[in-house]
Amino acid sequence: MAHTVFCVRYKKEMEGLDEPPFDSDFGQKIYKNVSKEAWEEWLNHQKMLLNEYRLQPWTPQAQQFLVEQMDQFFFGAGSALPSEYVPPSH
User: Fold this and answer.
1) Which residues of 33-64 are buried (b: 16+ CB within 10 A; e: fewer)?
2) Above 90 in pLDDT, residue 79?
């Protein structure tokens, strides 16, 4: 049976992640409160942040920034878009 959570992003019961994304308390919090769909949304948002801010994800500063943004994305007011960000047109 699939792991289900009450997703903090979508405010409803949804399929959860298969496993915690990190081996930490924050990873457990994500696992218990974030759906697969919301996690995919975060991964796309994270990619945009990496590109727009030209972050090197292996640096501690970039990792700390991304964790702070992830916390805001799921549990705060939302992760802010960069001021010059223009969404791609399809």
Assistant:
1) bbbbebbebbeebbebbeeeeebeeeeeebee
2) no
Flag whether pLDDT at 2 surpasses 70.
yes
Q: Is residue 60 part of a domain?
A: yes
Number of alpha carbons in the 13 Å side-chain half-sphere of residue 64: 3
pTM above 0.85, yes or no: yes
Average pLDDT estimate for 27-40: 97
Torsion of CA 49, 7, 72, 47, to 10 degrees: -10
Residue 24 tokens, joined: 């930490």
Q: Which residue stretches of 15-59 are H helix? A: 25-33, 36-52
- Provide the domain limits for residue 40: 4-75
Taking the C-alpha atoms of residue 22 and residue 29, their distance in angstroms, rounded to an integer, is 10
